[in-house]
Amino acid sequence: MSNIQQILNVEIRRLARKEAKEAIKPLKERIKKLHVQVRTLKTQVRLLAAGKPIDQPAKDEQSAEQPKVYRVDAKRIRRIRKKMQVNQTDFARLVGVSLKTIVNWEKGYARPRQSMKAKIVELSRAGKKQIAARIQELDG
Fold it and tell me: Which secondary-structure segment (H or E) carries 82?
């Protein structure tokens, strides 16, 4: 008899977790949206404190101008760097980040921001001579 009771208890707990998860799902989505709003407001406050104007395009303009999304993962970053025949230190200088950041990106411990992804893609489209010239410029 206790075996049936244990089975029922396990099943009741499972169903309760499932229902709780479904109830929390819309709340999590709302929290994500609120985080984005808070981040936007913080940026606006920072700009106002610095005395800079806040330039916000209208909603229609924002939807029309979708930012370009670059798919860059750890393997691709390493492949791009190897194709350019550049070591991690020089690659970090070209992108404008630290060596540790490049190491973390290539190992998959961290992911680059969209702005950094754009720089990486731009570098991948450049020729080896252009890359060598940029490194020379950085060396001085």
Answer: helix 74-84
